Amino acid sequence: MRGAVLNLGFALGVLVAVFGLTVDFIMPGASPGLNLPQILIIVAGVLLAYGSRRLRRDGLPSWSGEARKQLARGFAVTIVTLLALEIALTAFGAPTFYPTELSDAPLERAPWWACDELGCRFVQDAVNSACDTGEMRRRECIVNRQGFADSDEFIVDERADGRQRILMLGDSFTQGYVAEVGASFVERLEADLPDALVWNAGIGGTGTNQAVVTFSGLGPLFKPHLTILGFFTGNDFRDNLFPLDSRIRFTNADGSIEAVRFYVLDQDSNPVRLELTAGLVEYARAGKLPIPNEFERLLGNTRLGSLLLQLKQRIDGITVPGDPHFARATELTRKYLSALKSDVSAAGSEFLVLVIPSRTDVPPPKMRYETLIAILHELDIAYLDPEGIIQAPGDFAAFPDVHWNSSGHQKVGALLSECIKAFNDSGSFADCRHVTVPNGR
């Protein structure tokens, strides 16, 4: 009988270890790669299998009644201590590693956001309705019929004849986030160049892949003399890893607008689509996407388990420094910038990249900033770098917002308009202050 029990223990240990190794493939919502809970499961299985085989070979030790009582007492003290620690951590408000609520309720898309052949943009009628009810306000309400954040319609008629045409592409910086209405760098450019026709096609939360698609649609219609791309080193590299429609936009109960990406990256840096649920928002807000396997999630819903996962996270930060997806992000960014340059050149337009360093890039350049500069030199793309002009924190919105405030926007707008005036006089970006032309033209 004892031998059968020990054989069963050995088999169970092997099964537990195998389960720990293969849990990513059999549990819903699992993320690839070994993690701390899996390692603990594997170790427990190996120890159970080893102990059962050892006892099978050497026999069970002769334990007195007193020894058994001591073992039971020690086990009880351990359990009570762990429970007391969990209760104490909960009483003191220690956070859990993962959100404790995981709602399966579907997440409704906002009606004022859509993606099509021009990329992702706003729906004017829905935006107007949201602005009428106060759901959206101020700069969020500046949307033309084409769905871009410009107060003027994108129409080419006799008013465009003989005027310099400038197409602005980019993300939230180009759209004008945080700046007061009338004070964004694009609006400053328009004020300084009243004879120019400027279309602002910048859309927050998008990357260079959006710029490529938008130019393919607007370029042939507008026929811009200048095409200017605002590239934010803070997140444009990562945005280029995902499809254009990878975010869902919605309005919170307090009226604030929020966007959540419902894609995550696998270990090969490929985007994987997640199911849209209200629980997804809580994980996204906590920065805990992708949602882990069920065992790790339950462990992270306890305070003691959260301490273990936080320790693992710190160890991972030491052993696997940096962004494991940055190489792929760099490859795609180079591809999109090359495609945009080619399309702009084929349309007879001059191309300029406005480098937008993140707050952590100013003043010392960081990896993303340096990588972008290297790509621009490699592709022979002229760029304007406002580093040294923008000062942190005075020209930035209140932390943790990453955007320029009105002061920062105005400085960049003045710099950009000065550059374009110099370009108009000489026909060369090389005469623009703070512009680097890799080939020297």
List keywords for this structure.
441 residues; alpha/beta; single chain; six-stranded mixed β-sheet; elongated
Evaluate the radius of gyration. 29 Å
CATH topology of the domain at 113-240 and 325-436: Rossmann fold
Just give the CATH class of the domain at 113-240 and 325-436.
Alpha Beta
- Based on secondary structure, the structural category is alpha/beta
Q: Largest sheet, described in full?
A: 6 strands, mixed
Strand percentage lies at 5-15%
The CATH homologous superfamily of the domain at 113-240 and 325-436 is termed: SGNH hydrolase
Q: Please give the share of residues in helix.
A: 40-55%
Question: What's the short story on this structure?
Answer:
The protein contains 14 helices and twelve strands.
